[in-house]
Amino acid sequence: MAAKDDLGRAGEQQAADYLTRRGYRILDRNWRCSQGEVDIVAAVDTHLAIIEVKTRRSAAFGHPFEAIDDRKRRRLWQLAYAWRAAHPDLARGRILRVEAIGIVGEVPASAAIEHLEDIA
To answer: Are strands 36-44 and 47-56 parallel, antiparallel or unpaired?
Structure first.
């Protein structure tokens, strides 16, 4: 397994732990469909959050959020609607929101975390 895959998995775990500490209930992780993959799906208050996690060892090649361009945002929205359609009981009555978590640091467990709650 590639070191970047290990880093990505560790970052996603750090993000899930971070979200749980802030009151999010993790509903799904690494959900896949024909359109792509959602890193984390979580419920918080009245929202259903589709969360993209970007982990980097450093910001030398740009901040993790720079990888979430307009095309990626559109795909995340498509995935949000697909997840909601596939899980109507979990999504019922919740407002969809796309979020992003950026993690920068050599060791994800102690890395800096930034969270954008709405990247519409």
So the answer is: antiparallel
Residue 3 contacts by C-beta under 8 Å, 6 or more apart in sequence? Answer: none
Task: Write the single-letter amino acid at 50.
Answer: I
3-state SS class at 10: helix
- Domains of the chain in start order, with CATH, are 3-111 (3.40.1350.10)
Q: Which residues contact 78 (CB under 8 A, 6 or more apart)?
A: 35, 36
Task: Give backbone dihedrals phi and psi of 30, rounded to 5 degrees, phi first.
Answer: 55, 45
Q: How confident is the model at residue 1 (pLDDT cuts 50, 70, 90)?
A: low
Nearest to residue 78, comparing CAs of 29, 26, 38, 28? 38
What would the pLDDT profile of 15-40 be if each residue is shown by its tens digit? 999 999 999 999 999 999 999 999 99
DSSP 29: E
Please tell me what DSSP assigns to residue 78: H
DSSP state string for 47-86: EEEEEEEEEES-STT--GGGG--HHHHHHHHHHHHHHHHH
